[in-house]
Amino acid sequence: FSISRRRNEAKGGRRSNDKRGVQIHRERIKKRSLRYYIISEDRTLLLKKLITYAKLTPLSDIKGETLVNHAVSSSDAVREGDVFFAIDGEKYDGNDYVREAITIGACAVVTQRGRGSELLELGAYVLEASDVRSSLAYALDMQYGSPSASMKYIAVTGTNGKTTISHMLCRILCRCGNSCGLIGTCGSFIDGEPLT
Question: Whole-angstrom Cα distance, residue 109 to residue 119?
Answer without folding.
Answer: 9
